[in-house]
Amino acid sequence: MSTVRQILLSLLLLGGAVGGYYFYHHLTAASVIPGDGKGGGRTISVEVARAVRETVRDRAEAVGTTLANQAIEVVSLASGRITELLFEPGQAVEAGAVLARLDDAIEEADLDEARAMAKEAQSALDRARRLRASNNIAEATVVELEAAAAAAQARVDRAARRLEDRLVRAPFDGVVGIRRVDLGARVDNDTVITTLDDRSRMIVEFMLPEFFYGRIQPGLEVQASSTSFPDRSFAGTLTSIDTRVDVTSRAFRVRASLPNPDLLLPAGLFVLVDITLGERDAVIVPEEAVVSEADRSFVYVAGPERAERRLVELGARSLGVVEIENGLEAGELVVTSGLQRLRDGVAISYEAPKAIDPERIALPSGDIG
Asked: Quick one: which of 27, 180, 186, 204 has the fewest CB in 10 Å?
């Protein structure tokens, strides 16, 4: 390369460096306002928010599944051919209602025979007792006839029970499901005819991390919601807590009860559960005001002219807000934007602080896995 080309290349590189420096200096100077503060005599423009003290709700969230208060698969106690199906899918029935009838001609005949034999045995006993009153028959004969009459009545009861078993009844109030068999089908005690669910109250079963084991108890308020009913929330109470924590998931099983008088909620529905653990007062700031470094957290408190870097202790977080347990008082202003340019004691300027949306203040006490 010739000497002239080297000189021209050097001049071009030098010009680029000078231009870049000038552009950077001009750009950074445009973002600050001249002043007499620390940090190179520049005043940094920031946004601030006011720390507020509000009553917050400690809560836990989980996903669960609805279960019927009572639920069974309806089967027959006897084997035979179905002659009647006396329900429609989705029908509400009362305890004792007949859902299906099996062929019962033989059982009715057996019952008639048993009753006739019992009547004969009772007549023989009555005659023996009259004769015994006049000492025309031995006491042992009366005793034998009494035993025969009792055995005959037992056969009547047994035949009546067999006839009753030809009827499939609802054991409790509930709603029947779809038909699993058709008219004329032969069934036994392993054949599911339909299902029966007591949906007057629903059970919601879900898992919580072991972190919450000592903090929940029966009677706590529960709110359940589902995408199937986007405009509704179902209120209930926590009813039972498992006595064991699963060693693999480190979680335990919990159940809550939800009234369901209009029978909207079916069994097996996926729901989001929100448990109220308690209420307390707390100092709240926007989450963007917190700066984390290693295991410590800071906020920049906005004074009349300067920013103060302050160490704080954090509590719960939710929906863009964070609780300050220690290090900040309600009413103080914290910087929420421009944090990357701040240093302790730097001069700042700001406009009126923005308020925290009250709907965001509902803090969970831990993350649900």
From this structure: 27
β-bridge pairing 251-259 and 98-102: unpaired
DSSP reduced 3-state for 2: coil
- Using CA atoms, how far residue 225 sits from 60, 63, 64, 65, 230, in Å, is 14, 10, 10, 11, 7
Whole-structure pTM value: 0.62
As a whole number of Å, the CA-based R_g of the chain is 41
Map out the domains of the chain with their CATH numbers: 32-55+281-360 (2.40.420.20), 60-69+199-280 (2.40.30.170), 71-192 (2.40.50.100)
Q: DSSP character for 365?
A: S
Query: Which residues share a beta bridge with 169?
Result: 98
Q: Are 349 and 62 contacting, i.e. CB atoms less than 8 angstroms apart?
A: no
The Cα-based distances of 267 to 61, 186, 232, 253, 270 in angstroms read 20, 29, 17, 18, 9
Closest to 321 in 3D by CA, of 65, 56, 85: 56
Identify the segments of the chain with pLDDT beneath 50.
23-40, 364-369
| pLDDT single digits (tens) 121-178 | 999 999 999 998 888 888 999 999 999 999 999 999 999 999 999 999 999 999 999 9
